[in-house]
Amino acid sequence: LMANYGGGAAPATQKFNNMNVAGDIAAQLGVERLTGLSGNVLLPFVDKNFVATANEGATTTNTTSPFGTATLTPQRFSGRVDVSGQLIAQSSVSLDGFLKNALLRDVDQAYSAYIAAAILANDDDVAGDLDAFYLEAQMLANNISPEQIAVVCGTTAFRGARDQGIGLGGANLVVGSSPANRNSILDYTTAVSSQVAAAQMTMIDKSGFIAGEWGGVNVVVDNMTLAADDMYRVILNTYKDFQRCKADAAFTVTTYGTANA
C-alpha cells in the first residue's frame, strides 16, 4: 500500500476488492473445500482396513465398526471495525474495499488457528524432537501417496528444517530454485504459519481432511448505529469448519528446530 493515502492518488494496479481468494492454511495446502453448504454435513469415512487375503474355504475375518464419521458444522468467524466519515473523505481509494480485505485477512488468520488446532487434535502420532524424515516415513508407512502429502509448520520448525539441510551438506529439506523460493519442505506443498506453534511441524494427508463453507462472506456497512458521530461500522461474518475424514491423516513433531531457534 502507498505510504500516504490522504490526498494521494492510489496506483491504478492496486487491488482492493479481492474478496474471493482464501488465504487460510487449508487453501494453501490444497485441502478439498466444500462450498455452498446448508445445515450440518455428515461425512462417513473408513477408519481402518477391513480387507485381507483369505485361504480357500476359510471364513472371512470380520472387522468391527470399520467406519467413522466427520460432521461439518458451521462455525462463525466475525469481525467489525468503526471508520470515521472524515477518514473516508480524506481517502482517494475504495476504503470500504480496503477494510473488507483487512477483515478477510483477519478471518483467514482466525480460521487458520482453528485449522491448526483441529489438525493437532486429530493427530495420530504426536512426537518429540524428531524431524521431517521421520514424518515422511510415517506417512509412507501408512500408504499415503506422495502427491497427497503436505506440510504445515511454525516458524521455528521451518527454520530448523532449513538449518538441518545446511548441516547435512545442503540436503534438500527446504526446496526451491533460489533462496527466496525455498519454502517447500522435502518438495511437499508447505504452509508456514504463525497460527501454528512455533516448533511444530505436521505432515498431513490432504485427502484426509475436509473444509466447509456456508454462504461465503457477508459484509455489512452500517451507517446508522453511529451516525451521530459520523462513524461507519463495517461488519463481516462468515461460517466455516474443518474436520478430519480419514484415519492416519496427520503426524506431528512438536519440538522441531528448537536447538536452532
Can you tell me about this structure?
It is a single chain. With about 260 residues, this protein is an alpha/beta fold. The protein is built from five helices and 13 strands. It has helices at about 25-30, 85-90, 95-120, 130-140, 155-165, and strands at about 35, 40-45, 65-70, 75-85, 125, 150-155, 175, 185, 190, 200-205, 210-220, 230-245, 250-255. Strands 5-13-10-6-9 form a five-stranded mixed β-sheet, sandwiched between helices. A four-stranded mixed β-sheet has the order 1-11-12-4. A two-stranded antiparallel sheet has the order 2-3. The chain is flat, with a radius of gyration of 23 Å. It starts with about 25 loop residues before the first helix and ends in an 8-residue tail after the last strand.
Keywords:
261 residues; disordered N terminus; 5-stranded mixed sheet; 4-stranded mixed sheet; alpha/beta; single chain; 23% helix; 29% strand
Task: Give the percentage of residues in beta strands.
Answer: 25-35%
Elements, N to C (H/E): HEEEEHHEHEHEEEEEEE
* Low-confidence segments: 1-20
* Main sheet overview: 5 strands, mixed
Give the termini distance in whole angstroms: 32 Å
SS element count, helices: 5
How many DSSP-defined strands?
13
Which structural class best describes the helix and strand composition?
alpha/beta
Order of strands, main sheet, comes to 5-13-10-6-9
Q: Roughly how many Å is the radius of gyration? A: 23 Å
The outline comes out as flat
Helix proportion: 10-25%
Q: Give the integer mean of the pLDDT values.
A: 79
